[in-house]
Amino acid sequence: MLISNQKDFFAGLMFTVVGGAFALGAREYSIGTSASMGPGYFPLMLGILLAALGIALALQSFGEPDEDEKVGAIAWQPLFFITIANLAFGILLGGLPLIGLPSMGLVLAIIALVLLASLAGEEFKLREALVLAGVLALGSWLVFIKLINLPIQLWPAFFTA
């Protein structure tokens, strides 16, 4: 059997791996039942559904080869900047106790996320990136801190002390 659509095959493979990882990670939490769900129930079900979708997509990709659906070269610059942006967001939002870095707060984490992720594109416009970061920071503050009341630090501790 030959892979007719490489894009579908590799997307299905990625979905299967990520879904399987979520399902395995959910085993660390109490699953519960459908009537009384534990904290691991949703990630387990989501992981199983994502893995099943990935398997279905990968199986559908077999057949007569299609030259138009080959996977191109890896776009290293976007991959690098998107990965670094997400790592920076996590580190700035939660801090890094291992090296003594305190949490920098939601606003600075979002600004760093947007600026770094903007570098992944073909062209970088600082003004547009800063406007987007401001809108996202304001929206995140409104939704997560004001509406949902999550205890998320908004600014670095040395700003508010």
Automatic annotation (TrEMBL):
<feature type="transmembrane region" description="Helical">
    <location>
        <begin position="129"/>
        <end position="148"/>
    </location>
</feature>
<feature type="transmembrane region" description="Helical">
    <location>
        <begin position="71"/>
        <end position="93"/>
    </location>
</feature>
<feature type="transmembrane region" description="Helical">
    <location>
        <begin position="99"/>
        <end position="117"/>
    </location>
</feature>
<keyword id="KW-0472">Membrane</keyword>
<protein>
    <submittedName>
        <fullName>Tripartite tricarboxylate transporter TctB family protein</fullName>
    </submittedName>
</protein>
<feature type="transmembrane region" description="Helical">
    <location>
        <begin position="41"/>
        <end position="59"/>
    </location>
</feature>
<feature type="domain" description="DUF1468">
    <location>
        <begin position="10"/>
        <end position="151"/>
    </location>
</feature>
<dbReference type="Pfam" id="PF07331">
    <property type="entry name" value="TctB"/>
</dbReference>
<dbReference type="InterPro" id="IPR009936">
    <property type="entry name" value="DUF1468"/>
</dbReference>
<keyword id="KW-0812">Transmembrane</keyword>
<keyword id="KW-1133">Transmembrane helix</keyword>
